[in-house]
Specification:
By secondary structure, the protein is α+β, with helices and mostly antiparallel strands. The protein is 48% helix and 13% strand.
Length: 753
Amino acid sequence: MDRELLIEIGTEELPASWLPALTSAFGATLEASLKAARLSADAPVETFSTPRRLTARFARVSERQTDLEEIITGPPVSAAFDQSGAPTPAAEGFARKQGVDVSLLERLEVPEKKGTYLAVRRQQRGKAAVDVLPDVLTSALRALTFPKLMRWDAMLDDGKGELPFGRPIRWIVFLYGGRVVPFAILRTPDAMGGLVQEVRSGAVTYGHRFLATSGRAGRAVKVKGFDDYRKRLSEHFVVLERDERHSRIARELDVESRRKGGRVATALVGQSLLQEVPDLVEYPFVLSGHFPEEFLSLPEEVLTTTMIHHQHFFPVLNDAGALLPVFLAVLNTEPEKPEVVSRNLERVLTARLRDARFFWDADRQQRLDGFIERLDTVLFHKKLGSYRGKAERVSRLAEWLCREVLVRPDLAPHAAEAGRLCKADLATDMVRELTELQGTIGGIYAREDGHPEAVWRAVYHHYLPQGVEADAPPTRAQLGEAAVTWAAVSLADKVDSLVGMFAAGERPTGSRDPYGLRRAAQGTIRTLVDLPELTGLDVRIPLHQLVERAQEPFGDLISDSLEQDPSGYGTALWLFITERLRYVLEQRGHDIRNVRAVTHGDIREISPLVARRKLEVLAAVADTDDFRQLATLFKRVRNIVAKNVPATPSMASIDQTGAPLDSLLKEPAERALWQEVQQRRPVIDAAVAAGNAFRQAFEEAAKFGPSVATFFDDVMVMTEDAGLREARLRLMWTLEHLILQLADVSEIVPQES
């Protein structure tokens, strides 16, 4: 009989940013632990969380483990019996070790060992679930990972010592079929005392810390099962479902903002704050407050950053889209006197806005370029110098990009000026206090100084893009007249960081990326991928063009790096860029096989924009019968060329017109294939040269399928006739290189193949 399993881990408040991933991981680790313990769960796990609890519920978990049949193999039969059939010492020793008579040993064919072996079967009856479940929870708790672990003098009785966790665990609900499963988190001997005790499982949870309908807030609440658990928590002011908390917050924000004559500034807030706040509270309550109108003279970005990032307040707009001197706060309690709480929140926000006003006034005592000299005191990296040096490199690289690569020499001076100014705000008081405004406040100060839009907007947005989605900021409308100069400065800044940090030996490892190099690489690729939409320029920029120019200031550093590890710097950098390019394209929803196909070969020569355009048409074309046939056969073409062409020195000087092959090829199938190559090459070459019209090119390539199939059916490439063999290899080489201009279609071989 299957029974319900309910587990709740009660903790000190967990950070809101951890909860979404941690909630999923808690359910996944429990599922994996149940499976490893041979306990079947007929329904998927349901997970819930609040800042003080992680909860998982399995509607039905089997009462016993499934029985285990274990087959233990021994010596091969050939070594287990002598010529007379009597058991050898090897057979007798194996039987003795397993505690059975030799006559009870089985003979078992073992394909992986290519022979027949003696074996014994052991039947292990499954244990009762209640006896296994403590080990399930133990392994799940051990498997959970956190951005930061806390040691809290706790340990498990599993021989592995301490149990670090994200926050100290205060209680455990562990019910199977409504009965408590015994489980304990022990405390280290030095920590045990009157106030520090073991945490033992029970049927008791805890309600809201501060709210109660009667009695003491936060008192223990006994539960019988999940339905009772959810009901009892609700009675004690805990909204268990995150979606319900989210909906309640959104609804109350809308009601309160309308009551104040406005609407929530969703365009300014985005979804991040509304996604974060439900993980900060167990029982949400929305409260409004006001701040002095005098602060509305500050830039909108300063006001909203102070409210959103520092106080988790929601700004309110009027019907015209202007900020009102009103904010909305989401509390974790319903106060008896809301006006008192509101007044205190107003005092906190007003104090912060006074600080922001002070920093604004202090910074505006001089122009933005007056802060550049101070950048000498702000270190970028010990091997790469200060941010002033970085700004000078970005300025030169942005000017070159704008003039030579983006082919807008008229905007090159603006790009150079934006690059020179882009890091100046790092020396301002405003950024020291509100670090989220770096770049943004620099653009605002440049605007106040009278710089043209092509300069100040480029500074304002130069840290973007940070998302890889096509609609991630910035948009063309946000960039305005600065679209081209922004692209130049943004690319220059990110590529300079990538090349410089790799030359300095700084490379991302696992989850560690302190210099944000993944974000820099993805931002670079996303800009190149969407360049026409962002700037209006249809420029296909190969990756090596950016990297090679950005490397010039780091020549000595790169030389030192190569002396220490000749294959280190360049190999590591381009492997990293390849991974990031493929990641961006995969995140756009493209099949990984198609992504590998269009990013084959030398990554340095690839234009991300061209890769994107190929992928946009490849999915539809790749689904045709002819293309699937070509993909399968092209793998054979590639193998033949890889194994045989390097041994033919004359292959490097093949006459691309194909005239010699006309006289050398004899069989109808090979002559027909050569004619198809000649016929379809112009369409493919034209698409590659233009960087578009790839649908027609892929459709032309797909038509090779039947001819290649006939060629392999009728022709032996590796014939004994040396001249004919070389001609056929030339034909394979020419076909391979023609199709590789589009993609390595052998990567798209159907799964069933």
